[in-house]
Amino acid sequence: MVDDHWRSIRKTTTQVHVEYGPAYATLFATDIRLCLGPPITLSLSLESNLRTRHKGVGTYIDAKSLADGQISALSRVQLLDSKVIADVESALKHAQARARPWQLVVQLDGKHEFQVQPAVSNTSSGPFFLEVLRS
User: Most CB atoms closer than 10 Å: which of 82, 99, 114, 126?
Assistant: First the structure.
């Protein structure tokens, strides 16, 4: 069943920067979707990083570390693709529900959900950060 509230932002591969514990990585994300909620929810898949023949590359190693439990230490996700950022910002301009915090759903060897606070850079089409909130 398809939920009408979800908007596809990008199906193909783009990069995102993730910070977890003392580590950080730039990984490939696919199937980026936005639901205008409430709560506003951004969903992305990092699964493609685990599906590679080259198990020695950094993206596989970092994604494997996250999948093996480090995802619980996720502290920040940064959107890097200017088209993705523009599409998210455009969708939000039309959203009636601007309630915060947002929800981030990460698909990586299962579904992981986080409450996040969005932060946009001051520059046009600059980085878009999602800071994970801890209770």
Answer: 114
Task: Say what the pTM is.
Answer: 0.89
**Structure-token pair, residue 130:** 């999602």
CB atoms within 10 A of CB 126: 11
The phi, psi pair for 21, rounded to 5°, reads 55, -135
Kindly list the domain boundaries of the chain, sorted by start residue. 6-132
- Structure confidence by residue, pLDDT tens digits, 74-114: 999 999 999 999 988 887 776 655 667 899 999 999 999 99
Q: What 3-state class would DSSP assign to 108?
A: coil
119 three-state secondary structure = strand
- For 51: left if phi > 0, alpha if psi spans -120 to 50, otherwise beta; the answer is beta
- Number of neighbouring beta carbons within 10 Å of residue 5: 12
